[in-house]
Amino acid sequence: MTESGGPDHTGGSPPPAGAARPDPGTADPDPTDPSPTDPSPAGPDPADPNPAEAWTRALTGTACAPMARARIREHLDGHLARLTGLLAATPFDPDDGAAVGRWLVSARFGPHSLQRTIEVLGRLLPDLADAPADRVITLLGAVAAGYAAAARGQVFTEQEEVRSSLLRALERAQDDLHDSEERFRQVFASSGVGIAIFDTDGAVVEANPALVAMLGPEEGRYGEGWHGEGRHDESHRGEPRHGGAPREEPPADARRPPAEPTGDRPGERHPGGAVPEGRRGSSALFTAEDLAVLRADQARVLRSGDDTFRTERRFTGPNGDPMWTNVALSVVRDADGRPKYHVAVVEDTTEQRVLREYLRHQALHDVLTGLPNRQGFLPVLERVLSRPGSVTLCYLDVHGVGVVNDGLGYEAGDELLKAVAGRLTAAVAGEVATVARLGGDEFVVLVEDSPGTPGVPALAGAIEAGLAEPVRLADRRFVLSAAMGFVRVPTRGVDAMALLRRAHSTLRRAERGGRGQWEVYDEVRDARDRERLRLVAAVADAVAGGAINIDYPPVERDGARVAVSARLRWRDGGGEPVRHEECLRFADEMGVSGRLAGWLLDEACSFAAVEGLPVLVALSSDQSRDPELTAPVAEALRASDLPPHRLWLALSAHGLAVDPDAVEDNLTTLADMGVRRLLHGFTCALVELSVLERQLLHGVVPVDPPPEPLAREALAAALPLVRSTGALVVSDGRWPGADLVARS
Q1: Is 514 exposed, middle or buried, given 0-12, 13-18 or 19+ CB atoms closer than 10 A?
Q2: E-assigned strands of 350-470?
Q3: Nearby residues of 109 by Cβ (< 8 Å), 6 or more positions away
Q4: Is the distance from CB of 695 to CB of 715 less than 8 angstroms?
Q5: Which residue in 278, 298, 102, 99 sits closest to 198, CA to CA?
Q6: What does the buried/exposed string (b/e) look like for 400-422 if buried means 16 or more CB atoms within 10 Å of the residue's CB?
Q7: How many Cα atoms are found within 13 Å in the side-chain-facing hemisphere of 427?
Q8: Fewer CB atoms near the end CB (10 Å): N or C, the chain?
Q9: CA distance linking residue 228 with residue 205, whole number of Å
Q10: Nearest-angstrom CA–CA distance, 446 and 443
Q11: Least trusted range by pLDDT, from 233-237, 331-335, 601-605
Q12: In the Cβ-directed half-sphere of 457, how many Cα atoms lie within 13 Å?
């Protein structure tokens, strides 16, 4: 019998009763396999360039599989390709990963091989597939589930074989009593799963060595031939149990009970000796509670009319620890069809269950901090919202984690996150609260409100005070701060995902106010932000689907058209049209500004070439800082055959404030190409005036006139300085005295 539960021979007669059996912790080696057992360590070499070789080394170090090493390696290459493909697939479906676990069982690798497989794949797959940790954990759970299912199926198959052997032995008892007794004895004694035979009253008649090893006490375990509690009296000792030749008596030491059992310790077993009160009439292998459950199952089998029943049961182990098992019950009937015996085949599945629970815990908890992750937190939130009352949800973004990672190393960053987890937990220790890490530097705190729960300002103050204490990292003190978004709502009718979204959007509004700020959810502001974010989310599809249009209003000097302006216009559904500046800003937020700029330049240059007029094109902040900007400009000019001086390209003054070097590099390259260069969103800031003078720009497009008189007058007074450099002032008509008016 192998660890996986499969038979250790494929045909022929079973091994004799006294023959040595292989260690159940290893698989049988193939004598025809020319390759020796790999003497290398079981663990993978981190520097090994071949992941399949690392996996092969781990498996061959745990079992002697009846397969050549090269063949194992070939299989593992295919399984690695399968697993990495599943991790990269969209949508993600981990169920096919169960095939790897089934192969391990079919190849006769035991639970220790499964453990090493989980450890090796847990280290290899994140790098091979570049997949999120939660996908890797879920896929490894599918591998373990496939292994458990295959092992259980193999055991159930063996159980059926055992049952068939028992029935055949009983049916042929009258004709061949001796042979049937020996055949049954071999199956009974050599089986790797536990077998117990009960009489119709539910008392144990006999248990095989595997069951004794599984449930019996550490001392005084009986060997082959041990049988229950003397259900057969002394006058029948030495006689066959089902007829046939007499059986050899077990050694005297094996039949002698332990000295003076007390019977007063919970779960104490007394093989062959006195049975403690509450367990009289039961086998010493089972506690009274466990035996009562088995008897109830036996009664259920008889009532159902079906002679077989399979279930999962928790028994009490030798040391009082819980032991999870798969139990298959069957009824053995006499020649008249009346029940004569009950047979229970018991498989210990504790290790598989512990592994399954471990993987489930890993899937629902953050490995670093031990807090629930997003998958673990959402069920908690849903349960809390299903109860009456109110809750307070705080969504936090911890500042400075990226700086610590880059400056002090990821180990210091990990220590920082663990400190945050501990301090958040301590800050709400007096409340019924759940703290979770949703990913990166984002945490949530869920408080189930009570009459003594403080208000949001007090909660925010408690959290800020907890984070304010400096953390020592790499011999330096680091002060924590976090932006926070709070939502306090009644639980009735609230959706968990909607509540989480409200808290997150409130956090983002708080972050716009500066570091370490917090805000409370505002329904009106949230509705306004949601509409804007809906448009931001839809702009990528609009760019790809051609839903954005371009208008070409005139650019006039003294009423005469001297150029045209390329202006984006997008109407999503029945709402108001989205203006050019908003289209650019939304594209920057969604990361599609490069694609939008290429299309806008192509269309604008083609239109200008046909009209024979210059075209003014204003780009976004991200587009203005793009180091590859000149490539789509050159392509648009080449494809349209437009002279470069007829392209008036306005870069963003905001982009200049963010990354002046990148914007000025683009301005220099565009000048070399002969393109006319402008700055739009011009505020007369010092950096803008410096670039204007150095680059000798063709013109500027000032910002919309500010509502404050002082600011408006200051900007108007600075515009003559702009003209003194030779630059044109281009306005939409709201700035008096502009050189050019770009109609909208």
Answers
A1: exposed
A2: 390-398, 433-439, 442-448
A3: 3, 4, 27, 59, 62, 63, 65, 117
A4: no
A5: 298
A6: bbeebbeebeeebbebbbbbbbe
A7: 26
A8: C
A9: 5
A10: 10
A11: 233-237
A12: 0
316: number of Cβ within 10 Å: 18
Environment class of 708 (CB within 10 Å of its CB; exposed 0-12, middle 13-18, buried 19+): exposed
Instruction: Read off the amino acid at residue 524.
Output: V
Q: Specify whether the CB–CB gap between 631 and 669 falls below 8 A.
A: no
Give the span between the Cα atoms of 113 and 106, in whole angstroms: 13
For 4, the token pair is: 């996986």
Q: What is the pLDDT of residues 487-499, one digit of tens each?
A: 999 998 899 999 9
Contact 621, 591 (CB under 8 A): no
Q: Report in angstroms the alpha-carbon separations of 601 from 578, 594, 619, 629.
A: 19, 11, 10, 11
Judge whether 295 and 202 are in contact, CB under 8 Å. Answer: yes
> HSE of 139 in the Cβ direction (CA atoms, 13 Å)?
29
Question: Which 3 state secondary structure label does DSSP give 374?
Answer: helix
Concatenating the DSSP letter of every residue in 557-619 gives ETTEEEEEEEEEEB--TTSPPBPHHHHHHHHHHHT-HHHHHHHHHHHHHHHHHHHTS-EEEE-
In whole angstroms, give the CA distance from residue 384 to residue 425: 18
Cis peptide before 31 (omega within 30 of 0): no
Q: How many residues belong to the chain? A: 744
CA distance 740 to 589: 31
Percent of the chain with pLDDT over 90: 34
Read off the pLDDT band of 472 (50, 70, 90): confident
Comparing 555 with 233, the larger pLDDT belongs to 555
Per mean pLDDT, which range of 34-43, 75-84, 395-404, 668-677 is the poorest? 34-43
d(CA 242, CA 247): 11
Residue carrying structure tokens 């290899």: 124
User: Pick the residue with more confidence: 222 or 188?
Assistant: 188
Band the pLDDT of 4: cuts 50, 70, 90.
very low
Q: What gap in Å lies between CA 336 and CA 193, rounded to an integer?
A: 30
How far apart CA 51 and CA 726 sit, in angstroms, is: 65
Residue where the block lists tokens 């280290």: 123
Do residues 697 and 670 make contact, with C-beta atoms less than 8 angstroms apart?
Answer: no
Find, among 428, 420, 464, 465, the residue nearest to 449 by Cα.
428
333 C-beta neighbours (distance < 10 Å), count: 13
Q: pLDDT tier at 48 (50, 70, 90 boundaries)?
A: low
Report d(CA 578, CA 586) in Å as an integer: 10
pLDDT exceeds 60 at position 576: yes
Per-residue tokens: 617: 């094109």
- 35: how many CB neighbours lie within 10 A of its CB? 13
Rounded Cα–Cα distance for residues 59 and 118 (Å)? 11
Q: Are 97 and 114 in contact (CB under 8 A)?
A: no
Other beta carbons within 10 angstroms of residue 492's beta carbon come to 11
- Token readout for 137 is 């954990």
- Give the single-character DSSP code of 259: S
- The pLDDT tens digits for 279-300 are 333 347 888 888 888 888 888 8
- CA atoms of 195 and 329, how far apart (whole Å): 10
For the cut 90, the answer to whether the pLDDT of residue 218 exceeds it is no
